[in-house]
What we know:
Organism: Chloroherpeton thalassium (strain ATCC 35110 / GB-78)
Number of helices: 11
CATH architecture of the largest domain: 3-Layer(aba) Sandwich
Number of strands: 13
GO biological process, one term: polysaccharide biosynthetic process
Structural class: alpha/beta
Oligomer: single chain
Helix content: 25-40%
GO molecular function: pyridoxal phosphate binding; transaminase activity
Shape: globular
Family: Belongs to the DegT/DnrJ/EryC1 family.
Radius of gyration: 21 Å
Strand content: 5-15%
Protein name: DegT/DnrJ/EryC1/StrS aminotransferase
Bound molecules: pyridoxal-5'-phosphate
Amino acid sequence: MDIKLVDLVTLHNRLKPEIDAELEKVFATSAFINGPTVGELEAALADYLDVKYAIGCASGTDALVVALRGLGIQAGDEVLTTPFTFAATIEAILLVGATPIYADIDPKTLNLDTLKLESAITPKTKAILPVHLYGQGCNMTAIMAFAAKHHLFVLEDNAQAFGASYGEKKLGTFGHASATSFFPAKNLGAFGDAGGIFTNDEALYQKMKMIAQHGSKLRYHHEVLGLNSRLDTLQAAVLKVKLNYLNDFNAARQKAAAWYDAFLADANLQTPQRDKAGSHIYHQYTILVENPGQRDALQQFLKEQGVPSAVHYPVPTHLQPAFADEKYPKGSLPVAESVAERVLSLPMHTELTEAEVAFVCEKIIAFVGKR
Ligand SMILES: Cc1ncc(COP(=O)(O)O)c(C=O)c1O
């Protein structure tokens, strides 16, 4: 059985005629930068999330940087976030000159533990940056109440949960702004790097749009320090087609997750824990084993059986040399540190079959046993 961790090829082959037609339109006009398709996609994305404004940009990392700049976050400011995320979340905070501060994560959802927020903030804290990890939202009710109480900006990192909801609303619509990634393997993926920013605030929208386009509204007139972070028209064309299928993609992932849940129900490990207040769109299906040595041995065993897997993420951000801060030595965020040694992401994509999931689970149970 040829099991893939991610299968973009089969997905592409299904959508190829439609995507080719959209790409041809861009080639025909050669409007490669700021072509009309970019605006069409932005309108469709805003409509999909039910927000007023969307801005396409060059990557999810840039989306975070531009949004933080738009919110006025700068040197001397602190941004409260999770230590259990992809590096980009922390890079963005540091790149605008601010300092990341952390609250530990919830051992079940692996998202920010909202009970730990109060003790983490200081008078310098200006914003909170929740990350909706693996496709499931943070507790946005608690986070919005906390932010209102302390007058913090809220920037959602929605790179892994675009299309998931929390309560009645889509994630990425709660904060002052949200940023997402359209990295190819994301639930809505382009054919290269791409990202987006979302807001309901018109002044913030205008500012962020300007920052992403060299700080300029009128060509060759630069009002603020900006950068070049436009979304390519070709990427917009791909995303425009795929957006029409995003709900189907997410439903296919949910179906695969339900098979995993069923086959692993008695396995001696923790399957992804759902927060019933929201939906989960399984950007990753990530299990948690008992101890670190077991995780690495299980990954090796699965590899030998032809089952690919991945670790998201092996090192929490406060322990990464690039972001180290003496305020957060080893042991300071124990839940994130323990989880990083025990997580394993299983094959998850739109094309998985029940037989493939059954095969993966059979191998896992052969290794970890049943409870
Ligand atoms: C949580 C999170 N934040 C930010 C990013 C950055 O996105 P990109 O790779 O498009 O720069 C990613 C994706 O890679 C991510 O998973």
